[in-house]
Design a protein that fits this description.
The protein has 473 residues and is of the alpha/beta class. Helix content is 52%, strand content 11%. The protein is built from 16 helices and 10 strands.
Amino acid sequence: MTRWQEAAKRTIDFIVALLSFVLLSPFFLAIGVMIKLDSKGPVFFRQERLGRDGTTFRIFKFRTMISGAYRSGARLTVKRDPRITKVGQLLRWTKMDELPQLLNVIAGDMSMVGPRPEDPYFGNFYTEEQRKVLSVRPGIVGPSQIDGRDEVEQYPEGTEDTEKYYIEHILPGKLARDVAYVDSATFWGDIAYLFHGAFSVALSQIKADFLARSKSRLALLSLDLGLMIGCYVLANFIHFDWQLPPKVWPYIFHTLFWIVVVKPPVFIYYGIYQRSTRWIGRHDMAAIVKAVSVSSALVVAVTYFTGLQRHSRGVFVVDWALLTFMMTALRYVLRHILVGASRGEEEKKYVKVLVAGSGHGGESILRSLLEDPGSRFMPVGIIDHEPHRWGALIHGVKVMGGATDIAMAASTHGVQMVLVSLADLDPAVVRDIAEACEKLNMDYRLIPALSDLLVQQGPEPVPRPQLSPESSL
């Protein structure tokens, strides 16, 4: 590349980077707020990189990991890296974490097009031929940024020494591409790379393997999207007594646009689609309530600041209630279908049990048995020593009485076993239940509280196995 071409490239770099930064500054602000709300730490991540002629500079990126991540793990990101934050996962997937490098371009440390900037540590492993990549400014877009953008996917599952694998298997390919670029770089070729890079990043958001792995989650997201639209429209009909005035329709279409844009990302952020519908419980319902509440509040704010100040706030309240109920109901229906399918066509032979104890421990046992589709134990009743609890229903199962009522419950319902919650009952009550079961020749199990299982008085020595002469050969 001639001297005037380099000067022209630097001028274009500066203009494009400055204009892009100005135009994207509101977007930068929004991402910064999301990062700060998501986890503690700075908005930007700064780290040394190798620049032109081997000099180092500090690169700008949006922070995608927990603060201090590089002090608690490898230099390189691995698959399913636990250090990556929720917002960071989205930024990495879309490559938006790279946008602050526009500041490096403005400062002259980087170019819009060039080799990928590398950690100085890995520069120690460059050969003389590979050091050609340091003769030009590193870039935001380049051959390695386009062809190797899914670098994490190149690591085999279970790779322990990621740095060694990177140096031996990934780095040589990256440098070969970058050296080839440096040997053939032209002014017009860089212009083509700039447009090609933008197109490749946009196109590569659609990953076939990701779609294959996540088809059930995407299907659930599609159902939820239909509920978001349907519940909002239904809320309008309810608010206006099923007769929508013509002037309302522009408000509806305008708000539906923001519902589709705002709500799905919020639901993804709260991990709604990482939760198994087969095991839905109160924690999942709480997450749904949070996601619906936050996303609805954001939609109200956006519509207010985009010219819909006269939009009825009552519609949003009805929409919130409808969407919360419908999303929860959908998941319970799906759970019922999944549990029914897993049980198969043949009816299981259940072991009918009584749960002794109606406190927290008994409730946990009862819920575990009812929610486990693979369980062969069917709770048919509850035994408790407190008379004021008799006749109550816990998860739809009746408290039948005390220890003296075990015989009647067993003969009436065919009970085969009693599960005794030690967390809920006094030792005297446990003894009465055990004696009643022994008289009936009925099996029983004493189930301690989880906290009791976790408490240890001290570390117990692990016995060494006694080896026979044959096993030692």
